[in-house]
Amino acid sequence: MRTLIRHADLVLPTGIRRADLLIENDRILAIDPPVGVATDEVVDATGFHLLPGVIDDQVHFRDPGLTHKEDLHTGSLACAKGGVTTFLEMPNTKPTTTSVTALHDKLALAATKSVVNYGFYIGATPQNVAELALAERTPGIKIFIGSSTGDLLVDQQSALERIFAETTLPICAHCEDEATITANKARLGTLHDVRQHSQLRDHLCARIATQRAIDLAKRYNHRFHVLHVSTADELPLLSDPRGLITAEVCPHHLLFHVGDYDRLGSLIQMNPSIKTAADNAALWQALLDGTIQVIATDHAPHTLEEKRQSYPQSPSGLPAVENSLALMLDRVHQGLCTLEQVVRWMSDAPARVWDMVGKGRIAEGYDADLVLVDLNKKQTIRNTEQLTKCGWSPWNGVELTGWPVRTWVMGQTVFQDGRVATAHRGQEVQYDHSRGGYWRTDSGPG
Ligand code: DOR
Questions:
Q1: Is residue 157 part of a domain?
Q2: Which of 148, 200, 252, 313 to mutate to test the pocket of ligand 1 (most atoms within 8 A of CB)?
């Protein structure tokens, strides 16, 4: 099966260039193929930009065990619509993904349910270092250094030391300091207002945990990815001449601040918490200057009924995979960044951080995971149109300029004309951890 995409502006590692692109089966066969090449389908993409599909390295799809919120099928439908062709999913499901068996069970489940490509982290517990050391077929190890949804937590120093010392897979962590949360709770007294969430999980709480994890990574010479950086205070900690540390930021930490609780209440209750407008600006600057390499969503759906409980019963988490690319394309439209930067943050960088084979760029021989975008399309996010099972978005009512219009996963169209190909199944991501991560792989072609 050959598909020829004609006249698109391709976002290549070397820049944007108008060219034709030929897909054969699941791979990119050629850029600028010879005129008259035999094809089964020709797509006229005049006026559109073609990007490598978004790779979201932090989602919670709740499957197994919490599937009233989301499941691997509905989460993947939301991905396809949003231009996300690959996701890496977190281990705080029920049961947790904290053994090799549970990891393989999840991979088998995704093979039957996911429309896009998938991978799963193995979660750390204070006792499972032997499982972590054995695990393969995974991007890496996830540690909750601070508690969040579910009961995964490793905050004892001795247990953390063992994980960094006795494993070789890349590690990522949720960095909020449990002792600081406990102390803040005692100071705040009875919690009753969602605004208190940003005082409970404050700047200090994020900074202490990020510092602690980075110290461990440096001491044990272990690759480490800081998930969802939320404060300006953490940014100086990320500087890393040895090439061990990478970091990411989420759209909600770039776009929401504490003043938004008045409007959105617990819909923007997140862990790490939403911080200030000054933090929003500093995090954006950190993306622009390369201090932070990756944008991921931390897509963490809960039902509206659950979210509407009074604080602190309301759970932390919000959905975002469906709109993350459009939120960033809108920033391109506003002149705040370039399309090439968006591709670097959302596709090239996550592929390199997690040593993915064949992903993250448009180049010959790479997987045909692609998203066609219309930079001029205006569309309003509406709860009623969301494909995520939870059926809402914190950006409900927001009009954005720049939207995905068609998505291919491994050469097959999975989203077009507003509809998702629900019967398509994505593939398990392949990793080559001998590549050594983001700082040891280039962003050029090849
Ligand atoms: O707010 C959050 N919700 N942060 C996390 O780290 C976990 C997530 C969830 O699973 O609900």
A1: yes
A2: 148
